[in-house]
Amino acid sequence: MNIAIDGPAGAGKSTVAKRVAGELGMIYVDTGALYRAIALYLLNHAIDGDDEQAVEAALKGIRIEMKHDAEGQHILLNGDDVTGNIRTEAVGNMASKTSAYGAVRAKLLSLQQDIAKENDVVMDGRDIGTTVLPGAEVKIFLTASVEVRAKRRYDELTAKGETCDFDRIAADIAARDEQDRTRALSPLKQAEDAYLLDSSGFTIDEVVAEIIARTKAA
């Protein structure tokens, strides 16, 4: 069984997908974390994300693995666990930019598909239902308004003790939406057979319950 959850940045895909996977006894696959691992490598090596050729050349030095244990998903970058280092705004913005490159997507596509072939998975990202797992039994397009997504991110960062600006976060989210929607390769869009779920006015519990109900009916 494959469940594909797509949607824009900050829509709550990861939180919801983890909960759904846990309640259904499936493996959660955060594909965005894979792209963030590449972005982290590029930032650490001072590689310009706007230079597609430089990014493609750097891919030869990148090895990414995904491991699962009782604590959840772990992302290994060249053997090092970087799970806790890939959630910064800088990494997210770099990932949004470089995930548009064909070489980057090709490097990760087979890894994602192999995991789904071998396991019951809940996979979230931008193009899971359209490109990565077009045959998924359940497809959800999860979204929310820019304001709601910015507030969630603001609260998350504030809870971690980070100083942040709401307007800047909202502007970054809107810009990432535009990048993701307009990129030439695998743009962010709702699959024709995906269910549109706007989480703006719902709790996490309500969203999770809706997806589980649709999964059991599939």
Name the descriptors:
alpha/beta; 17% strand; Rossmann fold; 9 helices; 8 strands; 5-stranded parallel β-sheet; 218 residues; globular
Reading the helices and strands in chain order gives EHEHHEEEHHEHEHHEH
Major β-sheet profile: 5 strands, parallel
Count of runs of 4 or more consecutive helical residues: 9
Q: Which radius of gyration do the C-alpha atoms yield?
A: 16 Å
Describe the protein's architecture and organization.
By secondary structure, the protein is of the alpha/beta class. It has one domain: P-loop containing nucleotide triphosphate hydrolases (Rossmann fold, 3-Layer(aba) Sandwich). The protein is globular.
Please describe the topology of this protein:
Blueprint: E1 2-6, H1 13-24, E2 27-30, H2 31-44, H3 52-58, E3 64-69, E4 72-77, E5 80-81, H4 89-98, H5 102-118, E6 121-125, H6 128-132, E7 138-143, H7 146-159, H8 166-182, E8 195-198, H9 204-217
Parallel strand pairs: 1-6, 1-7, 2-6, 7-8
Antiparallel strand pairs: 3-4, 4-5
Helix pairs in contact: 1-9, 2-4, 2-5, 7-8
